[in-house]
Amino acid sequence: MTDDLEPHRAQLLALGLFTQADLTEFGSRALDAASGEPPRPGAMRVATGFVGTFSDISGEYTRYKLIIDGQLLDLGSRALFERIVDGGPYRVYFTTDRERVQALEPVAPADVPDAVAEAVLAAGLDPRDPAARRDARVASIVRDGLLAVLGRTLDFTGDDLAANRSGRMSAREEQKLRSSATWSFGCAIFLALIGLVLAGSFLHQSVIAVAIIGAMTLLLAGVVVRMGVNARRDAAARRVVSGVGRLVLQSGSGESRSLVMEDGTSFSITLRAIHIRGHKPARLASLSYRVYYAPNEAEIMSLEPVDIAPVLEP
N or C, which end of the chain is more exposed by having fewer CB within 10 Å? Predict the structure, then answer.
């Protein structure tokens, strides 16, 4: 811990949500979230990386969230949320069952794992050689690692991506769209039934109320049915289209941000896609991505970075 981190650490401890003793205890028994070992229920985990924070407004309540290494965690405290530096490096302790932050402390950027440096070692190269980070073998390892995490985060596989590159859907993706269509049609029927029940309860009281309820129900059901029809059409065609886009990190509440294509098409994408272990979120957000998507449903099937050269820099 360097001296310039101490004031910030003292600010966090002053909130009274955890103590120095807690940090010491958690550090002695927490399992590294990147270890690959299956977590036990209620086990303490630790992750070190650059964090992302956002607020999620739901009805009358506002929940404060933190993302680290693709893990979405509940902060539970507005005071803690306001004192965390968004994008800053932290060591975060959390439990696996509640997915809630138990404590955290700032760390130096040098203490954060470096996926490229790990790839240099995996390739058998000298980590002291600056040119090693730009080696083709290192780039391949880093790219494969990014695609693996993006696939887990956005729910696509290597087979899905291979099929999408050739302009078609995989059998798995086709089934996903058919299931989505079935869910949409079922939801539309449910909305229609709810609308009938509500309209019936006002039938002898207000014709205007019945008309409003009927119109709103038809509108919502129509939107859901259209989604189902588009998903069914895409599944039948088994075709994907692609384009290049960039992430827009506009301010706002919620986990999603916009991925805007060169032709103006916009998709919603989770912030977890740029909070990947061993990488700086700002670097990942600056990349251009080739996006493969269903043309009618406008749903992302898969994506991949166009050029990872910016990620390989120190």
Answer: C
